[in-house]
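Hi support team,

I submitted a single chain yesterday and got back a structure, but I'm not sure I'm reading the token output correctly. Could someone confirm the output below corresponds to the sequence I sent? I've pasted both exactly as they appear in my results page.

Thanks,
R.
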Amino acid sequence: MKTAIYPGSFDPVTNGHLDIIQRASKMFDKLVVVVLINPLKTYSFSMKERCEFLKETTKDIPNVEIASFDGLLADYFNQRSDVDVIVKGLRATTDFEYEFQMAHTNKDLNPRAETVFIPASLKTTFVSSSMVKQVAMFNGDLSKYVPACIHEQIRSRLTQDFDAARELARTKYHEKSNSTERN
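Hi R., thanks for writing in. Yes, this is the structure output for that exact sequence:
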């Protein structure tokens, strides 16, 4: 039985992620989607929420398991003796450069860790979690970019978060403008 892991932050889950999950699930007997923590990132959703989104999004794909891990991917790979390969989705050459480096790092840290790259489909090649957040920031339509079953939860949270941030920025700007006018 061949088992793969598909790691990521999934903040939030996008149709690009779902495309890779669906395609990889057909290539392997089992696909473990692993939500990881990157201490260099600021998250809009908790790890628990991201796992719940993934469970909801993949509930009709029987060979997909959702897991989470706080640590190095190579360590998680090592803990899971049933895992054969790491799956990574690639949208563009910039993804390739980063993921190629990470594949070699994982292999160096764990000689058993092989990485397989799956190119994004044409319809999702431009979709990223960052892009989804930017569209949400200005109340744009997210329906083409995130799974329908979690669309409203993502839209609501991101719009709410960005409305609060935008209001704070406006307040600071007006305070600064008023202070400059007085001087």
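A quick pointer for reading it: The CA atoms of residues 19 and 121 lie 7 Å apart. Let us know if anything else looks off.

Best,
Support desk
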